[in-house]
Write a structure and sequence with these properties.
- The chain has 28 helices and 35 strands.
- The protein is α/β, with parallel strands linked by helices.
- The two termini are 70 Å apart.
């Protein structure tokens, strides 16, 4: 369709007539066509009307990208290697075959083209479609694509005189023929003034003369805003004006002389909507946001109550209930006080404000979408687009039927969020901010007596104020229902496909679907009940292999790690060779009810959440501990209903009996027998005059290794009878009912453990030393202490920073590093691990992934303990614990 272009450029310039958009046939010297960020633009016109030529000019002058144009001719070439088959120049039978072939190529070409246009529309991209589009059914295909993908569709019809079309066709390389051109013109004339009735968003009819005076104006996406210095997104206010002002002041906003609140850092206030209704001061709250929005110092999205109020203000027949009637009463009072004229002016301002609120907002940084703010939810392919359906979805979210009381059951739309942006929303009151799959709910039910919450981005932190009253006085409020079902089983739907947990100490921690599924299987079949699974202790990762030739682990590397993290003082604890265990002990059985939902003395479980003892023995141990601590006045001294301990329980064979008998003992026995036999054989050969001295030396060393191996694990085992022989060494006092204790110094934990040991014969203290990292002599004494104890058969040390929770700038520091002795490591890496070739291979091990897991697990453990102490819903604790168990399911060398 380009053969006539050069010959007719002058003709096109000489035949110009102008048409305004939307078929307003007013003469203008300049015809402006506005182009949204994402849209489908249909070029319409008979063959030869200049569609392709115009598009090529727009691409050549940089107005359009070549990728923004699709052509039926181009797709015919892609599909069938030709854009034209002239069947009319062949005998009838051949012509019929060629005609059917051309139809097949065209059909396939249009199908592929439609898929391409749909894909671009889904991505919210601009696409110009070059085809005749003469028939309503052809145009309807693209209208449906546009509606499905929530982009506008525009028609630009090129109205070229028939005489010009015939002349162009005569000069083109592949003529369409006089009959076909006249047929096209007839259909075009029949349809051109019916276009608006087909529901297009904009219609432009252009004469050839218009093309030189057309201005294409690309409009920026009004939903996109630069992140700038950061935003503070405030959850559903619902007329809680006092709480809103407290929160805004807490966020650091200060009023200027005109009463506009500004932040010294240039941050922006953003509302998720529902600023009115239900609460006591809706009108003041709305006026505040109107002032802020007018001054360009705030943004707000549309919401369900906002949409209802705007229709009321427009005079529509709306049932003002569910708290909206309180706003009506405030408006009536305003009219009685200030007069009807002032009331009408106010209502006009508020209506304008609410109508201008978009369905959602998208904040970008460096051109990348980072944050989406919506009221009730959004689907990924809606982000950055506008349509009635999107607006409805963002106002009301997604529902899945009704519950027994007739209230809508909200569907977990956030489970399918995969596009990467953070989505902040409200609408669905939750007791605490809820983060799932990079979505953040910040409606904490202020009007129901909960909290008013702000989410700060990019800091990804929360700021909240408590509600002054329960304004709604609803006995069946969402918050009350959640409190009643606090111990309900967590909903796995939003978790099973992978999810994220936002932690204060590490930031966002994401876990992948396959590891979540493995953890869910573990929790479903093997662990203690969910409400008792409070804390999963983090792993410990060696920072680096020892630089010494004969060592795999050495204290020098742990000390160097903490020194490099700007830690000034460390605590080194002698490591008990037993089994890690978490002990949750209540003051009495009734004290457990607020925390786990039923009476319970306590629970003891392993680091993977499994019950440590058989039920009867566990009860005996717990009752003994409870009785001893109560007699010592522990619970009264600290004013606590429970104590949560991280401990080591010895002896090792208490939990590892089967492992010891089936692996270590059997391997040791077999190795000793085989190596004795080999040595006896070698000695006999030597006596017979053979030169086997080198072999005897090698196998003598191997026999020594086997003997060390046998001695190593036996040193940690002894017989027990019921509770007799069992000892528990606490080293972290994780929490009391008064709060988490994980921010305390390690010396405090060790001293507290000594106090516990004095309270009960089952508890033992742990030997430890404190070392300043600028004291070289003290470091050498610590290394000597480690060397002496490990040569005597002890496992080694755990070296920790002064404070359990320590940061190097913004970076979390490992809370503990274990340094195990050479003898003990025979158990872990095999009896011959110190042979040069083996040790060289082991020193090539990678520890970075293990360290990363250790930090993430520690952050999750901090979070889960905090949530348990605050008596948050079970699902909130469970997401932390499940994430920690999921990280355990990820493949990391367990020997590290």
């Amino acid at each position: 369709m380009t053969g006539y272009r050069d010959e007719h450029n002058q003709e096109l310039a000489n035949q110009q007539q102008g048409y305004k958009p939307d078929q307003r046939l007013q003469q203008e010297s300049l015809h402006t066509i506005t182009l949204p960020t994402g849209a489908i633009v249909l070029l319409m016109g008979p063959s030869g009307s200049g569609k392709t030529t115009w598009l090529e000019q727009l691409v050549e002058n940089g107005t359009l990208l070549s990728s923004e144009t699709v052509s039926s001719d181009r797709f015919r070439q892609l599909v069938g290697d030709t854009d034209h088959i002239d069947w009319r120049q062949h005998p009838r039978e051949e012509g019929d075959v060629l005609y059917q072939q051309y139809r097949l190529i065209s059909d396939r070409a249009f199908r592929v083209m439609e898929e391409t246009i749909a894909a671009r529309a889904r991505l919210n991209l601009l696409t110009w479609v070059d085809a005749t589009h003469l028939h309503p059914e052809d145009r309807a295909v693209y209208s449906q694509i546009a509606r499905r993908n929530h982009v506008p569709i525009i028609v630009i019809a090129l109205d070229v005189p028939e005489k010009v079309l015939l002349e162009r066709d005569r000069m083109r390389l592949h003529s369409r023929g006089r009959q076909r051109i006249k047929q096209h013109v007839g259909v075009f004339r029949q349809n051109i003034y019916k276009l608006k009735s087909e529901g297009f968003d904009d219609v432009h009819i252009l004469k050839p003369r218009d093309l030189e005076h057309v201005q294409l104006e690309r409009i920026a996406n009004p939903l996109l805003h630069p992140l700038g210095q950061g935003v503070d997104v405030i959850g559903d206010i619902h007329g809680c004006y006092e709480e809103m002002m407290q929160l805004i002041h807490k966020l650091g906003y200060v009023a200027d002389e005109q009463g506009i609140y500004r932040h010294s850092d240039g941050r922006m206030l953003v509302s998720v909507g529902d600023v009115m209704s239900r609460g006591p001061r809706s009108l003041e709250t709305m006026q505040f946001w109107h002032r802020q929005l007018t001054a360009g110092q705030a943004l707000m999205v549309d919401s369900n109550h906002g949409w209802k109020v705007v229709r009321y203000l427009e005079g529509r027949n709306v049932q003002m209930n569910h708290g909206d009637e309180q706003l009506v009463a405030e408006l009536e009072q305003y009219g009685a006080t200030h007069g009807q004229e002032a009331l009408q002016a106010l209502q006009d301002d508020l209506r304008t404000m609410l109508l201008a609120a978009p369905s959602h907002l998208v904040f970008t940084h460096n051109g990348v979408r980072r944050l989406v703010v919506t009221h009730a939810g959004i689907r990924d392919h809606y982000i950055g687009k506008q349509s009635k359906r999107i607006s409805d979805y963002c106002r009301y979210g997604e529902t899945d039927g009704q519950d027994d009381t007739g209230k809508p059951q909200r569907a977990d739309w956030f489970a399918n969020h995969e596009s990467g942006e953070w989505v902040v929303w409200g609408h669905d009151p939750r007791l605490r901010p809820t983060i799932v799959n990079r979505t953040v709910n910040i409606d904490q039910g202020a009007v129901f007596g909960g909290q008013l919450t702000a989410y700060r981005f990019p800091e990804q932190s929360f700021v909240s104020v408590d509600a002054l009253h329960d304004y709604a006085q609803d006995a069946d409020s969402p918050l009350e229902r959640q409190r009643k079902r606090r111990f309900a089983a967590p909903n796995l739907t939003p978790l099973i496909n992978g999810y994220s947990v936002m932690t204060d100490s590490y930031g966002e921690i994401g876990v992948r679907s396959e590891y979540v599924k493995a953890a869910v299987d573990t929790v479903s079949h093997y662990t203690v009940p969910l409400e008792e699974l409070v804390y999963v202790p983090p792993t410990m990762a060696p920072p680096a292999v020892s630089a010494l030739d004969d060592y795999l682990e050495h204290p020098a590397e742990a000390l160097a790690y903490y020194r490099s993290r700007n830690v000034a003082r460390i605590v080194a604890e002698k490591k008990h060779m037993g089994s890690r265990a978490i002990v949750l002990l209540f003051r009495d059985q009734q004290a457990a009810i607020p925390y786990i939902g039923r009476p319970l003395t306590g629970r003891i479980y392993t680091r993977t959440g499994r019950a440590f003892f058989q039920a009867q023995l566990e009860q005996e141990v717990l009752e003994k501990l409870r009785s001893d601590l109560k007699q010592a006045g522990y619970f009264e001294q600290y004013g606590t209903d429970f104590v949560l301990l991280d401990t080591e329980i010895v002896p090792w064979n208490l939990k590892a009996r089967e492992l010891i008998s089936s692996q270590y003992a059997h391997v040791a026995e077999a190795a000793l027998h085989d190596r004795h036999t080999i040595l006896d054989t070698l000695h006999t050969a030597q006596q017979q005059g053979r030169d086997v001295t080198e072999w005897i030396g090698e196998w003598t060393e191997r026999l020594d290794n086997a003997q060390r191996f046998a001695q190593a694990f036996q040193a940690y085992c002894w017989d027990t009878d019921g509770m007799d022989g069992i000892q528990i060494a606490p080293f972290h006092i994780l929490a009391h009912s008064t709060g988490s204790l994980m921010d305390r110094e390690h010396v405090w934990h060790m001293q507290h453990a000594e106090q516990l040991a004095q309270s009960s014969s089952m508890l033992i203290a742990t030997e430890y030393r404190v070392v300043e990292l600028d004291d070289e002599q003290a470091e050498q004494q610590l290394i000597q202490w480690w060397s002496d104890m490990t040569e005597q058969g002890h496992e080694g040390l755990v070296i920790k920073p002064e404070c359990m929770t320590t940061y190097d700038g913004d970076r979390l520091v490992q809370p503990a590093i274990k340094v195990r002795g050479r003898k003990y490591l025979h158990i872990i890496y095999g009896m011959d691990y110190l042979q040069p070739n083996n040790l060289k291979r082991l020193k090539e091990r990678k520890t970075r992934k293990k360290e990363r897991h250790a930090l993430m697990e520690f952050a999750l453990s901090l979070e889960s303990v905090e949530r348990f102490v605050r008596q948050e819903p079970l699902e909130r604790m469970h997401e932390c614990v499940l994430a920690a168990l999921s990280l355990e399911a990820d493949a990391v060398d367990p020997r590290l």
